[in-house]
Design goal:
Helices cover 58% and strands 14% of the residues. The chain has 244 residues and is α+β, with helices and mostly antiparallel strands. It has two domains: 140 residues, Beta-Lactamase (2-Layer Sandwich); 68 residues, Arc Repressor Mutant, subunit A (Orthogonal Bundle). Strands 2-1-5-4-3 form a five-stranded antiparallel β-sheet, with helices on both faces. Helix 1 runs antiparallel to helix 2, helix 3 packs antiparallel against helix 5 and helix 7 packs across helix 8.
């Protein structure tokens, strides 16, 4: 199979993962494996930012790459961190030639058996969500064609992750909206029940309902449900008013 055919097959394979119930971690592990298969590198790691804008290791093709990525995060220095911070590729063909650039990381990389590291930003327009990191056991440069291919892999991963996040946020928003609608229905039912029991208007019933919830430090929806169920813990609120 030619390299072009292999590339086409890999992109189709990656695209097939971008479906419903998309498993982000499995997708990223697959990406690291395919990068090693197609590129002249020995290991690949992926760092992603979390909700606190802090980088986390999410996938690595080997244990050595995983350990080095974690070491990089702990030491707070290295090409992958610089790549994420700047949103630009960081190419280091020989860590030993410039150990002063990241002295702690360079020592850790040498101990792990890596001599070269190339980090590609995972970004969409101005949004940078992480870095795709390539590790080589021997000093090696990254030619323009390979760099472009690596960036294409990083772009595919970025689109997949952002799509999954958008879908998750949309689902969450839909759930929150449905909860709000359901809660509103419950409150309206409780207002009607309370108005009938106490001889109040709907507005007066709502004022009483809300005041009881606040005074008892309970959620309005919980109090409304208790009123509908005629629960004993809202007996005072539900007690009919007697004429003076």
């Amino acid at each position: 199979m030619s390299q072009e055919q292999q590339l086409a097959r890999v992109f189709v394979e990656l695209a097939d993962t971008l479906v419903a119930d998309f498993d982000v971690i499995d997708f990223l592990h697959l990406l690291t494996e395919r990068c090693v298969d197609l590129l002249a590198v020995d290991a690949v790691g992926i760092l992603l930012t979390d909700q606190q804008d802090s980088l986390q290791l999410v996938a690595a093709s080997t244990q050595e790459a995983k350990d080095l990525e974690l070491f990089q995060l702990q030491s707070e220095q290295g090409p992958c961190l610089d790549c994420f911070a700047t949103g630009q590729p960081v190419i280091c063909a020989d860590l030993g030639a410039h150990p002063q650039r990241w002295p702690v990381f360079a020592a850790g990389a040498a101990q792990a058996g890596f001599a070269a590291v190339h980090a590609l930003p995972m970004r969409l327009r101005d949004q940078v969500i992480g870095a795709l990191n390539l590790f080589s056991a021997t000093p090696v440069s990254l030619d323009p064609d390979t760099a472009a291919l690596c960036q294409a892999f990083a772009d595919v991963a970025t689109i997949g992750i952002l799509s999954e996040r958008a879908a998750r946020e949309k689902d969450l928003l839909s759930q929150q909206l449905q909860i709000a609608l359901n809660t509103r229905i419950i409150i309206e039912q409780a207002k009607g029940t309370l108005a009938e029991r106490r001889g109040l208007s709907m507005d007066q019933a709502f004022v009483a309902l809300r005041a009881f919830a606040r005074n008892s430090n309970r959620k309005l929806a919980d109090v409304a449900l208790a009123v509908i169920d005629n629960h004993s813990n809202v007996a005072e609120l539900s007690r009919p008013q007697h004429p003076q």
